[in-house]
Amino acid sequence: MSPDETAGPDGTTDPDRTTRQSTVMSQDETLSTGSTPGAGGHASPRRTAGRADGTPDTGRRPGSDGRVSTGGTPTPRTAFHTASPTAPRPASHPARARPAGARTPGPAGARPPADASPDAATAPPAETSPSGPVLVASDLDRTLIYSAAALALDMADALAPRLLCVEVYERKPLSYLTETAAGLLEHLAREAVFVPSTTRTRAQYGRIRLPGPPAPYAVCANGGHLLVDGESDPAWQRRVRRSLDEGCAPLASVREHLLRSADPEWLLKERVAEDLFAYLVVDRALLPDTWVKDLADWADGQGWTVSLQGRKIYAVPKPLTKSAAVAEVARRTGASRVLTAGDSLLDADLLHAGDEGWRPGHGELADTGWTAPHVTALTERGVAAGEAILRSLVRAVAA
To answer: Model confidence over 51-72: pLDDT tens digits?
Structure first.
């Protein structure tokens, strides 16, 4: 990273963090969920813009608990194999070719099936069976991989674990896991259908080089893109677009509301990711304590949800979820079980829908005390948590 960049909780970078601007994210730009406070130089306490609901701003400062408001009522838990699209399962045709030089993925059933026709994304879920593969869907940043700022190496230097770099950005190392975790992940990817599930854009995900065979499937843009052998599945794109068109207000109107209600005193920048959702980068020290809640209340009526993660305020359509994309992968592979892992509120639906899940001792879910009966809340933090999660997943796959 250049000196004026900061790594966020998702391990990505946020360039020009002191620039107050409104711009659309390109494929090569970085989506960040950074938790680093805004840069200095914004000392003016004067706030004149209205709140997110259009009422006058009280000017109150946020509390120190970093609580997140998501708006709306949590979706009831639904197992992946009980999704209910109604179209018939399409006839098979030759599978998409793998990239040149790609290695064969792990277990039987991990390869993309030959039924990936244009309507495959609307087909009913496959019947599960005891012989089906185990599917592991995991968030990446601050769950399995970590930026230098997120490693949480609280031991003596001589006792620190050896680290493996798995991402380089602008010719500088960016994301790591421990060498032990790398070995566990390689083993896991050969014994289960491993599905990286991230809010990163496709370009950002493409920078990561994980140990083990290439993942035959990956979820990007919080479920907006389902990658099959590294290529976005067009049938899934159509399904997502239909869901967004039918189930929520358009991105343009939400973005307009964000910009109209945000105060230039604390708004650093505004971005759009993959033409699917928007987020703001803010100065948390100046952000009024009720603004996010007001925004969440407004967004709920538009079919959108709001998540505050560090300096980032995400506005995401409710139909856009990691769990929906992972359910499609479970259908295509005939998975017998789905194991999940994640650390942020954008991972809650994924954890909620899995058969068994794990979350680290850090992150938004830990900070808000989020839990579920089938989700194990680990005490490890930082890169040690990534290793603990992978160890738990390997054991669960073998069980």
So the answer is: 444 444 444 333 333 333 344 4
